[in-house]
Design goal:
It comes from Streptosporangium roseum (strain ATCC 12428 / DSM 43021 / JCM 3005 / KCTC 9067 / NCIMB 10171 / NRRL 2505 / NI 9100). With 474 residues, this protein is an alpha/beta fold. It has a domain of 257 residues: Aspartate Aminotransferase, domain 2 (3-Layer(aba) Sandwich). Helices cover 42% and strands 12% of the residues. Strands 2-8-7-6-5-3-4 form a 7-stranded mixed sheet, with helices on both faces.
Length: 474
């Protein structure tokens, strides 16, 4: 029996590289047109047709059952698929904290899609793993952890927060991995902290009730002066503080906690200090905003999302610890088919994921194309555009802004109307996408300036549209 056969013996199994090249060209052309028209604000920023209508337009059932797509039919499918999505490059995209990705990061996704080197195990992707090592070294240096710190990239901030708190748990209760979690641990966090922290507490076995609130001001920022009271409450309740969480910046408001004040308190009291810097840690690259992160080097752990302000595609989030050994202690696992020999270059011992995408390549290519200064300029520009929106809104009757923005996130209200209804009307025809958040129990509209194409014209148009919806009295 012949062992080797021609590629034509395996149609649809062996890559047809010519067909791939044609489809890749279709993809590049289609995406280029999509980004171009999105940046110019030509189509709606969002469409919200029901799933059944979208499925019918895309012919999903037929393609799933019958197959047979070709580069030509794929071109038609891709055009419809892109048209039904949300356009993050659109100037009116002012919604969620997800980047309008730069094209170098998109190239990295394309490379990973073809090579598929899940590099948590070094032998599965030496180049990808080496790139991640150097990206992490750069991040550790920026944070101030230097040569003593450790890091890993994960698929998103929720996994990153979970991983960081696993390291905190290992430091507080090393035996928890084998013996289970004692019932007296507590996680101290402000109510404004990202929901993934409470979720992580539940996953870790602490339970939601172990998340004990920190005192905050009217805008949700941690009140440093009242931290002793909070710690006393925890101890009087018979609990041990596993970690204390600060935001840099808060997901809802974009405001930064006083990292130095909190960090000094944690150091003095022997409490693990975790900073959720998913969105705002990138301000380290912008000279005029770096002060917002003063004291970050005091953190025991930090997360930093690249798919927010470093303009990578989703997902790529760093977990960084001040002491490398703390991250290595987060997990304990046995698998004879994976853990053997010299593990010095493997990252699998630091992550939930066994198969982990080539995440470092996305960050690296953005840095390689734009440079550290270029990424810092992007952060500064988006922060400045948000500040400009605050200035414009304050000049108009009926608009109320509860704080001066510190980042690219701005919360505001218009009149006495139902703010959620205003948002729905704005999004109904796809002219704008924005979100909302509660501040001190009051619902506000929320703008997050992510797209580089957002300018004064966009901001004025949004304010005009809101002001024209109904009078200031609601």
């Amino acid at each position: 029996m012949a062992i080797c056969r021609g590629f034509d013996q395996y149609p649809g199994v062996i890559w047809n590289v010519e067909e791939f090249a044609r489809a890749a060209a279709v993809t590049a052309d289609g995406l280029a047109a999509y980004v171009d028209e999105s940046q110019r604000g030509l189509p709606p920023v969002i469409r919200r047709r029901p799933p059944r209508e979208v499925a019918e337009r895309l012919g999903l059932v037929r393609w799933i059952r019958e197959g047979g797509m070709t580069p030509d039919s794929y071109a038609e499918f891709l055009a419809a698929y892109l048209d039904e999505g949300t356009r993050l490059h659109h100037p009116a995209y002012l919604g969620h904290q997800i980047a309008a990705p730069d094209f170098p990061a998109a190239l990295a996704d394309f490379v990973h899609g073809a090579t598929n080197n899940p590099m948590a195990v070094y032998e599965m992707g030496a180049s990808a793993a080496t790139v991640e090592f150097e990206v992490l070294r750069w991040m550790l240096d920026k944070v101030g952890f230097g040569e003593t710190g450790g890091g890993v990239l994960t698929h998103g901030g929720s996994l990153a927060n979970l991983t960081a708190l696993l390291a905190a748990r290992a430091a507080a209760v090393p035996e928890a991995w084998t013996d289970g979690v004692p019932a007296d641990l507590a996680l101290l966090a402000p109510a404004s902290a990202h929901y993934s922290l409470t979720r992580a507490a539940a996953i870790l076995g602490l339970g939601e009730r172990a998340v004990m609130p920190l005192d905050v001001d009217g805008l949700g920022r941690v009140d440093v002066a009242r931290l002793p009271e909070a710690l006393d409450r925890v101890r009087r309740a018979g609990r041990r503080p596993m970690a204390l969480v600060a935001s840099a910046c808060s997901t809802g408001t974009g405001l930064y906690d006083d990292l130095r004040g909190i960090g000094e308190f944690c150091t003095a009291n022997g409490v693990w200090f975790h900073v959720d810097g998913a969105h705002g840690a990138s301000a380290l690259l912008a000279e005029e905003h770096r002060h917002l992160l003063d004291g970050i080097e005091l953190a025991d752990s930090l997360i930093w999302d690249a798919h927010k302000m470093l303009r990578t595609s989703s997902l790529a989030a760093a977990v960084l610890t001040r002491r490398e050994g703390d991250l290595d202690a987060a997990f304990r696992q046995r698998a004879s088919y994976l853990f053997y020999g010299d593990q010095g270059f493997d990252l699998i011992g630091r992550t939930v994921e066994c198969s982990k995408a080539e995440l470092g390549l996305k960050v690296f290519l953005n840095l390689a194309w734009r440079g550290e200064r270029g990424l810092g300029d992007y952060v500064a520009r988006q922060y400045a555009t948000a500040h400009r929106f605050w200035e414009l809104a304050r000049e108009r009757p009926g608009f109320e802004c509860p704080y001066e923005p510190e980042s690219n996130i701005v919360c505001f209200r218009y009149g006495g109307a139902d703010q959620a209804e205003i948002r729905e009307r704005l999004m109904a025809d796809g002219a704008f996408q924005l979100t909302s958040a509660e501040i001190d129990g009051v619902r506000h509209l929320r703008v997050t300036v992510m797209a580089p194409a957002t300018d004064d014209k966009t901001l004025e148009a949004l304010l005009d549209r809101i002001g024209g919806e109904r009078g200031p009295g609601g």
